[in-house]
Amino acid sequence: MVENVSVVAAPSPLLGLPGAVPGPPDSPDAAVPWHYGDPFGEQRAATDRAVIVDRSHRFVASITGAERLSWLHTISSQHIAELGDGRSAEDLDLDLNGRVQHHFVLSDLNGTVWLDTESERGPDLLSFLQKMVFWAAAEPKAEPDYAVLSLLGPRWRELTEALGVSELPGVYEAVPLPDGGFLRRMPWPTEDSFDLVLPRAQLSERWTALTAAGAEPAGLWAFEALRTAALRPRIGIDTDDRTIPQEAGWIGGPEEFGAVHLNKGCYRGQETVARVHNLGKPPRRLVLLHLDGSADARPAAGDPVSAGGRSVGRVGTVIDHFELGPIALALVKRAVGADTRLEAGPMAAAIDPDSIPTDEAPQAGRLAVDKLRGR
């Protein structure tokens, strides 16, 4: 049976904390604290100390059943059939033309696959999963009583006792917590990044215990600024309805911190992924833009990126970084070079040259075709 799940995330109880300022009312992050009065200080703390970020508006679901991994493997882009207990990965749902519909993080732990994704996209993803079960021994369902907190910073190594674990997990590993839920290590937005997926009823208690142990409160602004600087896209903001995985940098297995494994069996959208990988190049690429901080207005997600009055891409996340200043992610045409003078919405912009992918070698499939043609 397909569940009827609400799309709107309920306001987090942590919005009642001293100094908590909610996310912009017209954004998908209005239900959680955006900052606590010092957004740049919170970002700095996330890189050299330890902070805790409320991401409880994430949509959480679970999949149980003996065939949960082998079944999910056949309908998604990641190689997870033999993922292993206590392991995690990122995954995509693509449409028939290889365009990205959903991005989610999953962890297999003690006979259950836990997955989380954007709150407004979660119900559609769950509906798709439930419709695709057929005769498989797999049962996807929403888990509204679970929530996500993110932990950033190198000092989390000193706070294992407060977390209730003997040691921190490795990247994409997950370990159970004594009172329910689990701790998972992620490769982004910083080198020291962790997710707590825990019963929602424990949010305030966990927050109090961890901040008492030395973790500093940080709003989602800090998480988003570091994610943007790390060139990690957020679906629905940094992507549009034409985005394919290669454009967003999602190619690779778990060991490569990607979401699309190139050596796995058939899945919806695989033909496009394989064709681009073997024969062509993606029409656009995700880059980091440095924005003109002197401008009065800012672009918004979806605004055009233009060069000489001609549209060459679209703006994604726009945010202020504590070291880089105003920055943005953007999908731009491959032909746009780092030295191109750009406008992002109402302001001047420049591509960070370090954000441009350097792998321009010809694909194996293209070389084979050229060889057959005597080139």
TrEMBL record:
InterPro entries: CAF17_C, GCVT_N, TrmE/GcvT-like, YgfZ/GCV_T_CS, YgfZ/GcvT. The keyword Lyase does not apply. The keyword Oxidoreductase does not apply. GO terms for biological process: iron-sulfur cluster assembly. Keywords: Transit peptide. Residues 284-347 form the CAF17 C-terminal domain. Residues 350-375 are annotated as: Disordered. This is Folate-binding protein YgfZ.
